[in-house]
Amino acid sequence: MSNPFSPREWLQLTMQQQGLLQPQTSVAETVLRLSYVQIDSINVVERAHHHVLHSRMPGYQPKMLDSALAKGEIFEYWSHAAAYLPIADYRFSLQRKLLQNGGKHWFEPDDKVMQEVRARILAEGPLKASDFEHSEGKNGAWWDWKPAKKALEQLFMRGELMVVRREKFQKVYDLTARVLPQDINAKAPTEAEFTRYLIDRYLDAHAFGTAAQIAYLRKGLKSAVAQELAEMLSQGGLASFKAAGQSYFYYPALQLHAPLPNKVWLLNPFDNLLIQRQRLKQWFDFDYQIEVYVPAEKRRYGYYSLAILWRDTFVGRVDVKADRQTGILLLQQLTLEAGVMVNGLDEDFCAAFDTAIREYARFNGCDRWKLVKANHKGLKQKYARQQKC
Predict the structure, then answer these.
(1) Residue-number span of the structural domain to which 303 is assigned
(2) N or C: which end of the chain has fewer CB within 10 A?
(3) Looking at the Swiss-Prot or TrEMBL record, what is one Pfam family this protein matches (predicted)?
């Protein structure tokens, strides 16, 4: 169980496998590289799933994701959360879909409404929840969804419907038989195949991992993953090392081949690199929490703080908001970690930060950006005036 890489090399291997060190060329390639891209609805800036792709694809625009979905190169379903997934992995979504049949997804299934909803889509083509009338009064919160919306979601989770597109973030559903490309394998995997799939996808995307990390938010699968990892290790398909008392697994052929640029990445709270907070803390020494759900008076870093990754080190956070009426990206609070640039400004960091902010501002449809508040005197002075993109 020797360790062939230094801790810093493991960080860079993770970044490499995450598609950060080399530009990705298409949405389909990037989603496959990452194994999933989580969908999120927060829109104080461009939504998280688009931002994840922007961080890895030069010149990315949201219409590219829409196009990939329309072409059947990716599909929307559930990973550990709502996500876009590679169409090649469709059969592995059937493991969850089969569990949904005869069961419920948040709500008790209403077979009569489900039949009616299915019949309308069959007759009329793709529909969204708002296309169905609700006769019981005004819509309430999400747990009081109208019957048709509950039925649509149940049919989607069971695999009878797929999402063909989103309109103003609303799902538009059609029958799976009309959406799924004919050449896609739709045979449900065995438990062993599904377990191996989880391992392969995780190690491809993260370079190395523990059984718990690979089975992250996959209820009841940690034991099966651990057994399969042990079997693959014994057969020489995997190698392992220990760190902080945990066994980590990786492919023996893993190599670091992408150089580390002088670059700043601004990563959102749902980015694949950040989503497992304990792993982030252990390996990158970065204690990160999304504060969207924290009461305003208790927030330390801001409502929607992006993590600032410079080279292979997380150096701070920046709370962002796109003022779409004025075209200004507001850096509402920039907080550097203790010990970062304590002896003045680092010109390499400033150059990389400038580039990252300008690109992110343009991605959000802004032509200017403004630093509102910062905990670093030098940065406050440097960016005292509004900046053009």
Answers:
(1) 264-388
(2) N
(3) AlkZ-like
